Amino acid sequence: MRIHFVVHESFESPGAYLPWAEERGYALSWSRVYDGEALPASAEGFDMLVVFGGPQSPRTTIEECPYFDAHAEQQLIRQAIDAGRIVIGICLGSQLIGEALGAKVLQSPEKEIGHFPITLTEAGKQHPLLSHFGSPLTVGHWHNDMPGLTAQATVLAVSEGCPRQIVQYSESVFGFQCHMEFTAEATEALIQHSAQELAEAKGKRFIRSVAEMREWNYREMNEKLWQFLDKLLLAQKKRSPL
Fold first, then answer.
1. What CATH number labels 2-239?
2. Would you state the pLDDT for residue 238?
């Protein structure tokens, strides 16, 4: 299994995706775009594409952020989807999937930072890849927007603050507005970078304190994510055996 990570900022970590891939011996490649690393020219070099979050939006221009090319990332995502690859987007990544498929990003009803429960929809409760999640399930959040929905998209999980937490776009394409990959280390990097954002958000409904985020145990959420990923790869292998 060849997995390509697209990372937008030095403080935006792959989190739990990295030990999951390394422990299983998967081949990893990277586009750390903040460090000038290029996107793949095509989807030929990987079996799975994971596009992580960032403070950017699909609407962010190159003039506003010279190392972030939303159009190029959407083209890569679309190529990967058309080639039958697994594609997972987290936060900004989920919004880029929607945009790549013609569904515009929208502002979420509420800003969410910290750990809050998500609830599976009826489709989510019946979904074999999410059968181990339980509902509600407390997961990480750090967002103000949410992905657009195509006519074929299915919302699998919601939260009180956001109606699009997990979206399935096709058999192998999933958008996570929430952050099940957060670890204590990944969250600390965001905290260190986001003092002003946290100060401005203080007192809003779905904002955890820094102390609460530092004290929370991320392990259960990570393990649920790992099980989902294992199931997803097994299902893909059954559909397209090597």
1. 3.40.50.880
2. 87
